[in-house]
Amino acid sequence: MSINGLSEEADVVVVGGGPGGSTLATLVAMRGHHVVLLEKEKFPRYQIGESLLPSTVHGICRLTGVADELAKAGFTKKRGGTFRWGATPEPWTFAFSVSPKMAGETSYAYQVERSRFDQILLDHARHMGVDVREQHAVTDVIDDGGRIRGVSYRDETGHEGTIQATYVVDASGNKSRIYRRAGTTRQYSEFFRSLALFGYFEDAKRMPEPNSGNILCVAFASGWFWYIPLSPTLTSVGAVVRSELAGKIQGDPEEAMASLIAECPMISDYLRNARRVTDGQYGELRVRKDYSYANTKFWRPGMVLVGDAACFVDPVFSSGVHLATYGALLAARSINSVLAQAIDEETAFREFEQRYRREYGVFYEFLVSFYDVHVEEDSYFWSAKKVTDSTSSDLESFVSLVGGVSSGESALAATQTLTERYKNRSGEFAAAVDQVIANKEQSMVPLMRSSIVKQAMQEGAKEQVRVLLGPDLELDPPLFKGGLVASPDGLAWSRPG
Ligand SMILES: Cc1cc2nc3c(=O)[nH]c(=O)nc-3n(C[C@H](O)[C@H](O)[C@H](O)COP(=O)(O)OP(=O)(O)OC[C@H]3O[C@@H](n4cnc5c(N)ncnc54)[C@H](O)[C@@H]3O)c2cc1C
Question: What is the pTM for the complete model shown?
Answer without folding.
Answer: 0.90
